[in-house]
Specification:
Blueprint (H helix, E strand, L loop, with lengths): L14 E7 L2 E7 L5 H8 L18 E4 L2 E4 L12 E3 L12 H8 L9 H14 L5 H7 L11 H20 L1
Parallel strand pairs: 1-5
Antiparallel strand pairs: 1-2, 3-4, 3-5
Length: 173
Amino acid sequence: MEYEKTAQPVKAGNIRISFELNGVLQTIETDPALRLLDLLREQLQMRGTKISCGIGRCGACSVLLDGHVVNACLVLAYQIDGSHVTTIEGLQIDGEPDLLQQCFLEEGGFQCGYCTPGMIMAAKALLDENPSPSQSEIIEALSGNLCRCTGYGGIIRAVERYKLEKAKKGSVL
């Protein structure tokens, strides 16, 4: 990743960070202690990442940081300098839901939808690392994400369906 060089001074107390957000290089000036969650939602208008507990217990703010699922409420702005961040908005393809998002829609992996972005990001991290997880591995990978509506059945079915759909597409190639 190349860093943008600029002669403009940084406001006192702020830092300049460069990182890739959903495949696009970003160079911004920000408070180094600003939470990634607030940076995404307020400075970069990525509102798909949800605010909930604010202390890393619910997973509603899950994003991928260099391919690993993290709670955006626990990551500070200075920590993402030079990193790759993927939010729920970064999964869509030409403005349409990707296969994992589509599986969540079709299998009822949501009700109110508040936890859904975090659930999908946690599932994506799992599936990127292990394309064919067992049901117990799915449950473990999603254990940091809370849902008060679905009972998790639709969420687990969505991840299992994605696994099957990807396997079908792989056998066609």
